[in-house]
Amino acid sequence: AVETALNGREGLEKLQNAPIPPDLIVSDIMMPELNGLEFLREVRRVPKWMHIPFVFLTAKGEKSDMRYGFQAGADHYITKPFDPEDLLVIVAAKLKRHQQLVEAQQQQIAEIKKRILIMLHHEFRTPLTPMVGYSDMLNTDVGLLSVNELREYLKEVNSGADRLRRLVENFILLVELETGHALQSYESRKRSMNGLFTILESAVSSTENFANQKGVKVSLKNEAGTCAVITDGDYLRAALVRLIDNAIKFSDKEPREVEAKVSTTENTVIFSITDYGRGIPADEVEKIFEPFYQIDRHVYEDQGAGAGLAIVRRIIEIHGGTITVQSKLGSGSTFNVILPRSG
Asked: Which of 36, 135, 175, 202 is the most buried (most CB within 10 A)?
């Protein structure tokens, strides 16, 4: 079925009331009330509409108008007068490409579900087993336990619950990132932010309990001065939390310290997380960013499902940044998150 609207305002209303998003939008630029460019910007602000193919059909053929259209998120541009056959060919091609993307995404989701189910079989049982065991003892032997024993049992239950919470959060966030939902959220929420050290402080604060459990000291350094990046603060903080959390897990020898630092160059902002643990073998440096990859599982049983660093890289990628690793066996590792400056 084909829906039509007289102008951008009416088109927007029809989109809002539609039970499902359309497969394609074809729009003029010169329209009353809400012109084509304004209509496109409104469409691209809504996450569920961001990936709808958008074709401009207009008498305006100036390069500047075409540039504005592409900058706003248009997929194609046809100028009048046009051959109807050309329009049909373009529409068919865009619809086919859209369907291919949908099928690829569905296949990707199916693969993620499969991998998550495999990991759940082990990862959820690991913290659940002691939680159930200690809970049973608290339920049946509470009158026979000393205060210290009660505290120890409750501590173990709390530790298992915290690990489960982190597992669930990682799985949910990884699915959002792998399916494109996180990118849509980022595009709608991103803004210029200059409180970069505050974000790093907040990330360190979130890992404080875990650091205390592991006997690891986390220090902060601010070498950024006044600068800004285009970011979604929640996603950036989530990435930094996982990097710090990872550094704490692998700080298994003296000095049991982690350094979290933010600094700048002329064009970039750099968040650096350094630990002084065992380091990463050279042939595993690239593999650590793969979902569910784990280093020395038999040694680091509490490292989780191996989703943390995959989440970090994907978050940094949607920010238009990069992540690098310097590591030396026996000396530790430094992870650098590099983001383009916006001011």
From this structure: 36
Domain membership flag for residue 310: yes
Do the Cβ atoms of 228 and 336 come closer than 8 Å? Answer: no
Q: Give percent of the chain with pLDDT exceeding 70.
A: 91
| Same domain (yes/no): 131, 228 | no
Are 142 and 190 in a shared domain?
Answer: no
Tell me which of 41-55, 79-93, 258-272 is least confident: 79-93
In a domain, 37, yes or no: yes
What is the number of structural domains in the chain? 3
How far out from the chain centre does Cα 287 lie? 18
198 and 335 assigned to the same domain = yes
* Spatial distance between the Cα atoms of 135 and 20, rounded to a whole number of angstroms: 47
For the residues of 94-149, what is the DSSP string, one character each? HHHHHHHHHHHHHHHHHHHHHHHHHHHHHHTHHHHHHHHHHHHHHHHHGGG--HHH
Half-sphere exposure of 125 (CA within 13 A, CB side): 6
Shared-domain flag, residues 168 and 194: no
SS3 of residue 259 by DSSP? strand
- pLDDT value, residue 69: 76
Of 175, 127, 55, 168, the closest CA to residue 301 belongs to 127
Per-residue pLDDT, 243:
95
- Calpha distance 186→208 (Å, rounded): 27
First-last CA distance in the chain: 47
> What is the mean predicted confidence (pLDDT) over 298-306?
47
Is the same domain home to 343 and 229? yes
Per the structure, the complete domain to which residue 34 belongs is given by 8-101
Q: How many helices (H) and strands (E) does the chain have?
A: 11, 10
3-state secondary structure of 81: coil
Asked if 216 and 174 touch (Cβ cutoff 8 Å), the reply is: no
Amino acid 217: pLDDT: 95
E strand intervals along 214-265:
217-223, 229-231, 257-264
